[in-house]
Amino acid sequence: MTQNAAAHRLRFILILGTLSATGPLAIDLYLPALPQMMRQFNTSASMMQLSITACLIGLAIGQLIVGPLSDRYGRRRPLFLGFFVFALASLAISLTHSISLLIIFRFLQGIAGASGQVLSRAVARDLFSGPALTQFYAILNAVNGIFPILAPIVGGVLIRFVPWQGIFVLLGTIGLILCGLIIIGIPETLTIAQRQTGPLFDIYKSFGQLLKTPQFTGYIIVTGVVYGSLFSYIAASTFVYQNLFGLSAQAFSLIYALNGLGIVIGSALPGRLNQISAKRQVQVSLSISVLVGGLLLVGANVHFPLVAVAGLIFVLVMMIGLLLTLTTSIIMNLTTQNAGGASALIGLSQNAFGGLASPIVGLFGSASYAPMATMVLLFSGAALALVTRSKSR
């Protein structure tokens, strides 16, 4: 690869990785501002939490809209339009004084931000297949994984110097910058000959065709339950480290960032392990996740020390990063057409299981991290059973 080609590839990956992370960034960046926003809107904590839920629902629905539409109209136009709307919604939030309008605009922000998540996967599938696709997703997810590490830190620093509106002005500015980068840095990867034709409603029939593809549905569920494991950890992380182990907010942020780095490392591993089949890597990684879930459950009862719990969780998030890369690659490799629709189903499954896991972990109380460990064990065990059953056919 020439130096110019390598530089072009790096620029393309960085842009695509940033595009794919913008939806989650819209959640992570403003978390430190929630207390200030709650006071200014004179509302309850539950209403502020609803603004997070609205964005998550928007991210799920947006993928179902943008993915199939991109199979008909190409990737570039829906991507540009999505980020233009994302920028407008972000700037509108910075001007609103109503909690109801905040929730509505957050929903729109989620729908628009979904375009980056769904189409980054589809663009990669247009360009690559097989091991090359796995390697590309490994790099893409590693770039993507940096943002959850940096976002709360940036948001926390920003909120010290500017009011909460500054965070959404920043998000709006990021959206507009990405619109420009799409124009200059992202080519159209779906040729006219490859696009879906016929009545507009027919593009949604592709979901049925995809679900009939052998192993497709199984891996869609697997990638969802892996995401469920991730959100089981996220939902419990503050409580586990600050309440149970008595860490300060700063120490918790450090461990949270370290675990984010674990996801980045795990995401990059499949590109280094291409001599082992992707399905074999999935099976081994899920086996390790089951073991970690079981050990955490034991630890919750015999009171493992902080270093043991933190170490087990670090291994878990590494496996999650690896599994999200692998399952995405396997699913997208199973499709020769309708890559946008396939990517939308990945996003729907992940958001659905992630959204399900968070309240369930909280529902079982905060006297122990056993609920988190149980959810990780159940999710990982179910995924392993699905993969093993698929391999035996």
From TrEMBL:
One of its GO terms (molecular function) is xenobiotic transmembrane transporter activity. Keywords: Cell membrane, Membrane, Transmembrane, Transmembrane helix, Transport. Coiled coil: none annotated. Residues 9-391 form the Major facilitator superfamily (MFS) profile domain. InterPro entries: Efflux_drug-R_Bcr/CmlA, MFS, MFS_dom, MFS_trans_sf, Sugar_transporter_CS. GO terms for biological process: xenobiotic detoxification by transmembrane export across the plasma membrane. The keyword Plastid does not apply. It comes from the Bacteria. PROSITE patterns: MFS (PS50850), SUGAR_TRANSPORT_1 (PS00216). Its main location: membrane. GO terms for cellular component: plasma membrane. The chain crosses the membrane at residues 12-33, 45-66, 78-97, 103-124, 136-161, 167-186, 216-241, 247-270, 282-300, 306-332, 344-363, 369-387. It is a multi-pass membrane protein. It is found in: Cell membrane. Belongs to the major facilitator superfamily. Bcr/CmlA family. PANTHER family: MAJOR FACILITATOR SUPERFAMILY, POLYAMINE TRANSPORTER 2-RELATED. This is Bcr/CflA family efflux transporter. It comes from Secundilactobacillus kimchicus JCM 15530.
